[in-house]
Amino acid sequence: EGVLRYATVGEPPTLDQQVVTSDLATTIAQHVFEGLYTFDSSNSPVPLLAAGETISEDGKTITIALREGVKFHNGQDMTSADVVASLKRWGEFGSRGGLLFEHVESVEATGDHEIRITLSAPFGPWKNLMAFLNGGPAIYPASIVEGAGKEPLSPENYIGTGPYSFNAWEANRYVELVRFDDYVSPEGEADGYGGERVAEFDALRFIPVPDVGTRVSGLRAGDYDYAESIPGDLFAELEGDPNVNTILNGGPLFGLVFMNSSAGPLAENYALRRAIQQAIDKVPALQIAIGPEGLWRSNGSFLPEGNVWYTEAGTEAFSQGDAEGARAAAEAAGYTGEPIKFMVSTNYPFHYDTAIVYTKQLAQAGFNIDLQVYDWATLIEKRSQPDQWDMFFTHHGFVPDPILISVMNDNYPGWWATPEKAELKAAFTASSDPAERVDIWSQIQELIYEQVPTMKTGDVYTYNIASPELDGLGEATLIWPHFWNVSK
Amino acid sequence: MMAVASIRSVFAGRTFAQIGLVWLAFVALAAIFSPLIAPFDPYEIDPIARLTEPGWPHLFGTDHFGRDSFSRALYGARMTVLIGLGAVIVALLTGGLVGMLSAYFTRLGHVLMRGVDVLMAFPALLMALVLMTLLERSVMNTIIVIGVVYATTTARILFGMTLKLKGEVFVDAAVCSGAGHASILFRHILPNLVSPLLVQASFIFAFAQLQAAALDFLGLGLPPEVPSWGNMLSEERIYVTRAPWLLIFPGALIILSVFSMNLVGDAMRDSIDPRFKDDIAGV
Amino acid sequence: MLFYTIKRLLALIPTLLAATMLVFLFVHLIPGDPASILLGDTATPEEVAALTRELGLDEPLWTQYLIWLGNVLQGDLGTSVFFGTPVLTVIADGAETSILLATMTMVWIVLFGVPIGIVSAMNKGRWIDQITSGGAMLFASIPTFWLGLYLILLFAVGLGWLPSSGFPSLTDTGGVTNLRYLILPSLTLAAPNAALIIRLVRASMLDVSREDHVRTARAKGLRPSRVAIRHIFRNALISVTAAFGFTFAALVSEAVVTETVFSLPGIGRLVVQSILRRDYPVIQGVILVIVVLYMFINLLVDLAYARLDPRISLK
Amino acid sequence: MALLDVENLEISIRFGHELLPVVRGVSFSVDENETLGIVGESGCGKSLTALAIMGLLEGSGVRVTGGRMRFGGRDLLAMSADERRHIMGNDMAMIFQEPMTSLNPVYRVGDQIIEALQQHRNLSRRAARRRAIELLDLVRIPEPDSRVDSFPHQLSGGQRQRVMIAMALSCDPKLLIADEPTTALDVTVQKEVLDLMLDLQKRTGTAIILISHDLGVIAETCNSVAVMYWGRLVETAPTDALFETLAHPYTRGLLHSIPAIDRDVDWLDAIPGRVPTIGEQIAGCPFHPRCPRAESRCRHEVPQPREIAPGHLVECHFPYGGDR
Amino acid sequence: MSAQPLLDVRDLKVHFRTRGRTVRAVDGVSFDIAPGEVLGLVGESGCGKSTVGRALTQLERATAGQALFEGQDILSMSRRQFLPLRRHIQMIFQDPYASLNPRLTVAQTLSEPLFIHKIARSRKDAQARIAETLDLVGLGPEAMTRYPHEFSGGQRQRIGIARVMILEPKLVIADEAVSALDVSIQAQVLNLIKKLQRDSGMAMLFISHDLGVVRHISDRVAVMSAGKIVETGDKSAIFEAPQDAYTRRLLDSIPRIMPLKETS
Ligand SMILES: Nc1ncnc2c1ncn2[C@@H]1O[C@H](COP(=O)(O)OP(=O)(O)OP(=O)(O)O)[C@@H](O)[C@H]1O
Ligand SMILES: Nc1ncnc2c1ncn2[C@@H]1O[C@H](COP(=O)(O)OP(=O)(O)OP(=O)(O)O)[C@@H](O)[C@H]1O
Ligand SMILES: [Mg+2]
Ligand SMILES: [Mg+2]
Predict the structure, then answer these.
(1) CB of C312 within 8 Å of any CB in chain B?
(2) Where does the ABC transmembrane type-1 domain lie (chain B) (predicted)?
(3) Which residues, in sequence order, are CB contacts of A324 under 8 Å at separation 6+?
């Protein structure tokens, strides 16, 4: 019953899940669109639109059965034709589709509710990739997705199978979803994103409230039921407030300082990069940028503790804070004080705060850091030009499979594409043995600490706040907050 | 010459304006001597001493970097003066010159003032925003952008005032004496613009602070690390309930200083040549 | 009058042309391109290039300008890169909030500013004048976002009397009662502007009261209040009118900060967001609309002058 | 008893913390059908005297600080503000120097006259308008029916001054104070306006105080003249007597300073020196530093008004034609 | 009177274009002034008197006509060409309050023309000349370091006159030079102007609406009405036997002090 009012940090560029990687877009869109798989609370992929799958002995042929009777918001039944069309578009144009489709030979319908994917070689992460909705294979009606290209779908084509259907997008005002009465929920107890989904609200309203203070005040004043991205420093205060519930995000995000592997003083000089890494103590930056102890972890592993991908390989270099050692190492690496251009944006306070601390630490170790402060859009433009920067600051959301981490992409600014990386990456994707994959990943992580294409800054557990009237939210969010099985 | 006497006459019997003047003198002193007075380095980060309450040794408490707010406030006085003076200088040098020349050389004025008209149509804050995104966030750029924003109004105002002065009989008299353009502009007209310009400057000075704070707030002003009162407010604004002192002190400082500048400007306005009263904007 | 209006409108054309050119130039000089922002972190350079081509951003600047201008003349401000909807629609959505906000703010300004200005002028030098003009100046010295922040804390969070932020539109459920959402923002916005109007009303009243005809009015034996309203204020209104006009124009656009603090879906915030997203068509569109609004108000002010001051004839 | 009796009027201006007298003890009276001219150089206090009588000094930092004024037997200074306002514009009206600025530019002249009428007479708007047109006709404005709807800027200076006169006469005042009503007008128009005033006086019997710095204007229009110097009336007399004797050296000097249009003189007989400023301290006769007849007595002793002929008062120790 | 006039104005026209309308402020005016002669120019307010004076000093551009100063047409000269002649054609302004730059001391005001026209070579030289001229107009040398606002109206007008006299011009145009002064001061200044004119032998165009003043100071008088000169003649002829109807009306409206008695 009623309307859920969700204060977002801004507006998503589009809800088209296949092409967009914005977290905000997924937070909204996961109510509208569904993929074949999703994650349960342990971050393992479980069927959603799929009923189940069989994999051939050689691991190359995957046959997926689809649930029957699932309806799109336009009233049509979901069939294999829709799924094949959706997967094909995702494979060709989707942001993360290429990762899988590099290895895909064909996708075809083998029945009204069955499809078959043929791989060129076994590919381990396929199910994780299918389950990750962000930039992932959301299922659209074939009529819409056929002929659609890279261009995001326009709002009138937002037709999915989810518990809520898209209703309206008022620029600057809100995105509104309404309950889809013909929704057919998957079976089973709700667990993570898996299991039964019940739409309790008449409508969900995602209202952009860019100013964080306003999000907090608005929730306290009762104008919003839920508000995202709240600064760590307010945690204690908000947790003590009986009018506010705090909800931690289970998957931490982490800052990354990319180094330019293509041009400039850092391009090939791994020793110098290691010297930079050596100079930095990550803890003070986390203390300052995030605040309370519980909300950050000085963790060098790219995936958090408790996750299957957790590994300490290479992490002894993570946070040394050894100014003197770094100075010596830099000198040995031939560094003579030339300026190092470090770009950071002020749009995310934690980027800026961290960069300030790092700059101080690096200066102490004798580095000549030229901190360049831009707004996010400018930074994005500049970072694509190799001659404009040496380091830049960004952050990364939680991903269920390391293959999805941006540094794995050779084209990502920084352009890390050494032969060592290429070799390990090939092995990593080729294997579908979980244990072997974890092992290869730890080697990759070690390589990252050695070649330093990027520098992790530590895990940040963000949290959201909600009105105590909301029932069913649970203690923590998995990746994106969702509002099926939630009521007021 | 008449300076001291005229300052005295401007402020005679205006208690508030006098208090304002005293406050501004404090600000100026703080700006000049901040490195000597400040107990801490305003950039010194201390993760342990984050968000400490006001007390000893952190008179105004510390911010989320653990930096000493009192020291930052002292250095903030420096930014206040810098932004104010910078904006005034930019506005007067560009806008003022355009306005004066346009009024004096009528034909040139037709062209230039059309341009000013066009610029006037651009809302000041939006223009500042667009300009700021064009440029890197830096103290210099902020000053220039704010100065440019006030340049258009200044040009308008100076245009009007110069036009009035150009019609004065003593200008005719100078022409009859054979004085050239430069002499008339700078020897006969400009000195008569000094006091209205001072008034105008005081308002620009005051409102530039608010404009700068607004830019800081929108994330397009001074680099956030720079200790300015506007930055102190906008960078720490989420702590309004958690660490109220972080907003109260710099807020009070801005308000007090802008208020003082306004009081001083008002006092000066009341005492200037009535010819120009209409022209001078509250900006 | 009509003839004059038409003439003035025609005279606006060159100014508008210059303004549009300037807008275009400014906006396109801003670093950052919409394609990269739209495509996000993982886009390849080829994809960005393709989208850039698709959006027509690879043409020479002047070609882009001419195409844009041509479209504008046909009433088409282009399509928002970000929203994918026509710019005009996006602006129209924002305009509702902005115009309502500006109007409400003007109501406060007139309601508070004018009477206080009059009272303060009529009591020049007395304590009531000192308090009102001092207070006005104090309000003009407060950074808007600071004031807004505390108003929210007090009236929305603390007392719970008014909503803290947002504005769900008059067509939304709630209808006219949704105007409650605009009370705090409009007060925030009104504070400095009302202060300026108070000062202006006071100063103009004092100027007029020194004029000879006021003495004539008093010499007729009129009551001081009648002299103040009918003779002094009526004449002071002439110079105050322009301020009203330009304040209104400024309110529509310069509410950026207030709209951000109160998270209002207005034009000001739209511009800021569009600048951050490099949504060129929207930035251009909004600035164009605001420039047109400004000029239109300029014209209205002149027309109002002619109505208020019979000495001005419109030829 | 005269219509207006001014006795020892003293007006002071506040300069900072000081109250400096500007009009320092002025006495005169006017009666019905009479025209009193007050002449004097700029700044000598003519307008302040007039404004004090009208009751328009309030709130300008200028105050009546001494003396008495009776109008129709009533003490003006003892009246309440309301009573004063009831007389203002009704029994007593004033015309000002600047016809260009003395009318409110935003109202039609008719409405401004009507406003005065409605303030004191219980007239309907229609009746008031009819009366306004009559008044405009009375002051010889052509086509009063349409001119009643003109705005001030649509009238010439002379016409505006006529409107002012019409407004002043609207409630049949007993006393009309005209403060330099023609100074800003062209000579030809000046004459017409003055003639008009005198003509109206003949019909209504209104007492007039005409203030001017132009001795010629005074000589042609007034029954009696008061010469003012630095806040004092130095000579008061019926017009003929005044110009006959020119008893006060200042009056005489003033007259000789004026270049005549009907006679050639090579050099003007100018008064040396300048008028003292407000607040200047001068012992003895204020005119003595410029006076050709000054003797040591003049430097020490302030002259008191002396009646050297019936109705002819002079403030001088050694007036011309006096017993020297 | 010498054969060649110092200034010969022929058919001078000055039209102003304001808001699409043309104001024919001066519409065909001709007169001449001989060296050492004073020509009075009278007329109603707005008839164009000041405009004539302003056109002759190039403060206003003439629309048509000629003004021959010692044979050269000054109206067609450029600003630069006219510069050397400015020394010889000077102007006294009406308002003693407005015609002096409030920000300059008397010495600064007076030295400016000296240096522009290279009359003084050195500061000392200028100083001496200024003191001399101030003395001429009846002010002491202590006036030099003071600002205009420290003087009374009459004194300021003397400074204005000094500024003109310091250049020893051949022609002075006095536009309402005494109208803003009080009668008693006016008489002093009139006497001064007359004396200086006689002593230096300069010619003068004396513009005034005050007929008495014009009669007092002029040799000849020109009466202007609506942009045109309606009558010119010897002052006694104009004042005692006016030919033109307008002149007569003007003279008739002057209030007179009838029972004027000659005093010893
Ligand atoms: N409101 C005022 N405040 C201060 N000084 C004033 C005020 N009104 C008049 N004065 C001064 O008082 C003196 C007398 O003024 P008043 O107006 O009576 O002169 P006046 O004789 O009418 O002169 P004029 O012929 O110039 O009108 C002048 O020196 C004038 O400057
Ligand atoms: N710059 C100008 N632009 C437009 N019209 C002007 C200008 N200067 C003067 N005039 C007009 O020219 C006419 C003559 O003006 P001018 O000043 O020469 O008259 P005047 O005889 O000197 O009058 P007064 O006795 O009032 O000084 C007037 O109608 C005036 O309005
Ligand atoms: Mg007077
Ligand atoms: Mg003139």
Answers:
(1) no
(2) 77-265
(3) A365
